[in-house]
Design goal:
about 300 residues; alpha+beta; Rossmann fold; Tumour Suppressor Smad4; 2 domains; six-stranded antiparallel sheet; 9 helices; about 30% helix; binds adenosine-5'-triphosphate
Length: about 300
């Protein structure tokens, strides 16, 4: 279903926004979206809103958005919606910036840029007149990602998570799935080839952003604006190993653990069982083996003038 809502420009500089809304993201935060859209219009922005009906719609809308019609594409949803929008933008005509209305479960991109998902005023103000940062994307087997791409237990958890439980309980569904998976998973070796070296572990996450799964720092030196990936390699296997990492992450101590390697690289190959899943920005985006690198394209991301 497409909902269109056009208003005339209030000022010469008012941004023309195409809002792409995933109504299934998070726990259906309709009120927050309506509040942000109202504020955007009050700030003089010209708002056109479309709603997705299935996976792939957000990408198609973003691909078709022309700079003749829009200044900004606003991804209204979670990180998976942002991922789709970005994949559409890199194939589209270019010349349009990206912004977010964080309505998802984890909203890691919002955390990364200092945007408070509960602060409608800050979100609207950012979209209306926030500064633009040039963001380098990662690409895994041809699929672009903004935040991270990971192989091992986390990708299996993403693949197996119960969607109904996620809608009902949010992040708790990932905890439940992690516990379930940890006991049945055989922790096969995951190998990373980067900078002419081979690194072995049980889980590997190539990070573009610092945060992982929430406000938890996995790769302290990763930056969206940097043309580098920081790959985090976790060598320990088994439930005990995963509990060690699962406890260190929320304490922001993961990268301090002596066996954890964080390697800076522009490209790498992640190998493991052929066909094993690779998660990108919280959705399955590729299968192993995965060639991961910095994409030649960048996106212009609108960020808050002062982080919340
Ligand atoms: N209308 C739709 N119906 C079903 N799935 C959709 C629809 N629109 C988008 N999707 C898919 O929904 C999935 C989840 O969306 P998204 O990641 O934005 O929300 P989330 O999982 O709640 O948030 P987060 O990634 O922050 O945890 C994505 O894979 C996206 O492609």
């Amino acid at each position: 279903m497409i909902q269109t809502d056009n208003h005339t420009l209030a000022t010469a500089q008012a941004r023309r926004c195409l809002v792409i809304h995933n109504p299934t993201a998070g726990r259906r935060r309709k009120k927050r979206l309506a509040d942000v859209l109202e504020r955007l219009q009050a700030l003089g922005c010209l708002v056109t809103a479309v709603q997705t009906t299935q996976r792939g719609d957000a990408e198609a809308y973003a691909r078709a958005a022309s700079p003749a019609d829009y200044d900004v594409i606003v991804a209204a949803g979670g990180d998976g919606t942002v991922n789709e929008v970005v994949n559409g933008m890199v194939d589209g005509p270019g010349g349009v910036a990206l912004a977010v209305i964080p309505l998802g479960t984890a909203n890691v991109l919002a955390l990364e840029i200092g945007l408070d998902p509960k602060n409608s005023e800050q979100i609207a103000q950012t979209i209306a007149d926030g500064p633009v940062h040039n963001v380098h994307l990662g690409v895994a087997n041809g699929r672009h990602f903004v935040l991270m791409a990971g192989a091992g237990l986390d990708a299996h958890v993403v693949e197996g998570v119960n969607i109904a439980l996620k809608r009902a309980t949010g992040k708790l569904a990932y905890v439940v799935e992690s516990v379930k998976q940890a006991f049945g998973y055989d922790f096969p070796e995951i190998t990373v080839r980067a900078n002419g070296e081979i690194y072995e572990g049980r889980m590997a996450v190539a990070c573009k952003g610092r945060y992982y799964g929430g406000p938890f720092i996995a790769a302290p030196d990763a930056r969206l604006e940097s043309p580098k990936l920081e790959v985090c390699i976790l060598p320990k296997s088994g439930v005990a190993g995963m509990m060690r990492y699962g406890l260190a992450l929320p304490m922001n101590k993961l990268s301090d653990l002596p066996e954890v390697m964080v390697i800076s690289a522009e490209s790498m190959v992640i190998m493991g069982p052929r066909g094993a899943p690779l998660q990108g920005d919280g959705d399955i985006v590729a299968r192993l083996p995965a060639e991961i690198s910095i994409a030649p394209q960048t996106v212009q991301l609108i960020v808050p003038a002062s982080p919340g």
